[in-house]
Amino acid sequence: MSEEVKVDKEHSHVQHVEPYTPQFGTMIPSSGQKFMRTCVIWQIIRFIAINIKMTTLILKSHH
Amino acid sequence: MAKIVILGAGVAGHTAASFAAKWLGNEHEVIVVSPNSKWNWIPSNIWVGVGEMSKEEVTFDLAPVYAKTKANFKQAKALSINPEGSESNNSPFVTVEYTGQGKEGTTEDVAYDYLINATGPKLNFGATPGLGEGTNLGEHTVSVCTADHAIHASHELDKCIEKMKAGERQKFLIGTGHGMCTCQGAAFEYIFNIEHKLQERGVRDMADMTWISNESFLGDFGMGGLHFKMGGFVTSSKVFAESLYAERGMDWIIGAHVNKVESGMVTYETLDGAIDTQDFDFAMLIPPFAGVGMKAYSKDGSDITDTVFAPNGMMKVDADYSKATYADWEPSDWPKTLQSPAYKNIFAAGIAFAPPHPISKPMKSPNGTPITPTPPRTGMPSAMMGKAVISSIRDMINGAPEPTHTSCMAEMGAACVASAGKGMLSGTAAAMTVFPIVPDFKKYPGTGRDINGTTGEIGLAAHWVKHLLHHAFIWKAKLKPGWTLIPE
Ligand SMILES: Cc1cc2nc3c(=O)[nH]c(=O)nc-3n(C[C@H](O)[C@H](O)[C@H](O)COP(=O)(O)OP(=O)(O)OC[C@H]3O[C@@H](n4cnc5c(N)ncnc54)[C@H](O)[C@@H]3O)c2cc1C
């Protein structure tokens, strides 16, 4: 009888990756990284940062 | 009084027309020629294609907008240019054929002093057998290139979702439908939106999702890839893109030229020369782009299309078209003023100008099939070109001997936001900035791009930016109060 293995939190979001597939050879975000992507306070800061970056880009691009 | 004729009312043409009407409309005549009665914010077609937006939310009627300004709108398509006039008419003119305004099918010669060609792409579905006929989408696949295509795509997607709910697995194939396609970014955004939709509808586990594209590596985007700082590394967009697919359990086929589309199956050739097939229940494959196929005639009526246009139908401008090999390419090959070398009162902007060569390194399969992304000309550069060109024309009307403004893809950046989902807290997106669009390996050794100006990140913030851009650009295009304050 096989014992059921409990998947811990750090592995739950990578468990779909099969060894030696192309997906196996790249990086997958950690649970912490995924949390930050949807953390509203951090994302408000990033929203301001992205807008500054894009505005700088536009100013650099106009001739 | 000068006559300025603008062909096309898309991103580049409408930008040029808006500034032309503002700056020149009182004293000069501004004429806009475009076959569609509506303006379309094409980037949001992606949301239409997954049923998150209606056609009405991404389009609006052009006539009332131009009626507010001093621009004269002709709902017509340009057929040919006579840059020297004709034997009976000394003024240069464009021959147009009406597609609306009650004059459908009638032709007219529209005289000009200055001409802007901003006719965008011909959606060349016919280049791949089975993908479509000419500019018409075929029966086997869907498209998101126009708002109507996107509505059709959304209905087909709903049918697949219903099948999955009933327990039937479905195969999704998204990407490019030919070895010489551009616009990978649009397909990239669409596959993530579908994935998001399937998650939302609780059927993701019933779907096999595959990306197919002509990029030699994932994340090439027709720009030879890009590098940015991430997690303490200077990271390639290859890693960034692969990570996005791997995270979502999606497969990828790259370096692929789709050479045949049949019901439920594509045949493709890869860079190693292998020929293979891929089954699908739902496929969205971007067609290759060409110029819209205008002709040009000299005063005596002889065909000078080859002088004015490149073989792909896009308009020749001040680019260096002589560089055949990748090793010889320089950023200075790229056009600056976008003026026709043959006729100084003709300019091209956006997808309508002929690029000097690709940005991605050209590749061929051992069978000699070219499999190389052609260069993207996305929204921001297209709008900037439209504004630069009309700024030069304004100054030339006022006496400047040469164009006064430049808009060069080797000197400008681009911002791209690929967003999945529409909810303010449930959506997610990748935001990328790249500077310059055309890499300069002498100025920025190793990566070709300014590491501080080239960025990529994923999260809700990028998704909010996409929403902001949607509303801001539609506001601007409708010429609502303060439109000039919204940058291109
Ligand atoms: C699905 C999709 C999603 C995209 N998403 C993004 C994105 O997120 N960000 C981004 O920056 N870019 C995006 N793009 C690219 C962007 O849409 C193009 O870069 C932009 O539209 C190019 O502008 P343009 O003015 O050259 O061409 P268009 O906007 O296509 O305008 C061409 C105009 O010319 C008219 N025309 C055609 N033939 C004739 C003729 N014979 N005579 C007169 N007029 C004619 C057309 O009706 C149209 O009005 C996307 C493209 C697609 C297809």
Brief rundown of the structure:
Chain A is mostly helical. Chain A is built from 3 helices and no strands. The A-B interface holds A 13, 16-17, 21-23, 25-29, 36-38, 40, 42-47, 49-51, 53-58, 60-63 and B 239, 242-243, 245-247, 249, 251-252, 380, 384, 388, 405-408, 411-415, 425, 428, 431, 433, 435, 453, 455, 457-462, 464-465, 487-488.
Percent of residues in helices of chain B comes to: 10-25%
Beta strand count of chain B: 27
Q: What structural class do you assign from the helix and strand content of chain A? A: mainly alpha
* Computed CA radius of gyration of chain A, to the nearest angstrom: 19 Å
**Any idea what the CATH architecture of the domain at 3-123 and 290-397 in chain B is?**
3-Layer(bba) Sandwich
The CATH class of the domain at 3-123 and 290-397 in chain B = Alpha Beta
Shape designation of chain A: elongated
What kind of oligomer do you see? Answer: heterodimer
Helix content of chain A: 40-55%
Largest sheet descriptor of chain B: 5 strands, parallel
SSE ordering of chain A:
HHH
Summary keywords:
heterodimer; A: about 60 residues; mainly alpha; 3 helices; about 0% strand; elongated; B: about 500 residues; alpha/beta; FAD/NAD(P)-binding domain; five-stranded parallel sheet; four-stranded mixed sheet; about 25% helix; globular; binds flavin-adenine dinucleotide
Describe the structure.
The complex is a heterodimer of chains A (63) and B (488). The model of chain A has no long low-confidence stretch (mean pLDDT 85). Chain A has a domain at 32-63. With 63 residues, chain A is an all-alpha fold. Chain A has helices spanning 9-12, 31-38, 40-61. Chain B is an alpha/beta fold. Chain B has a domain at 3-123 and 290-397: FAD/NAD(P)-binding domain. In chain B, the strands form 9 sheets. Chain B has a 5-stranded parallel beta sheet with strand order 5-2-1-9-24. The interface between A and B is large, with 34 and 38 residues. Bound molecules: flavin-adenine dinucleotide. Residues 7-13, 33-36, 42-43, 45-46, 77-78, 118-121, 144-145, 183, 186, 292, 350-352, 377-380, 382, 416 of chain B line the site of flavin-adenine dinucleotide.
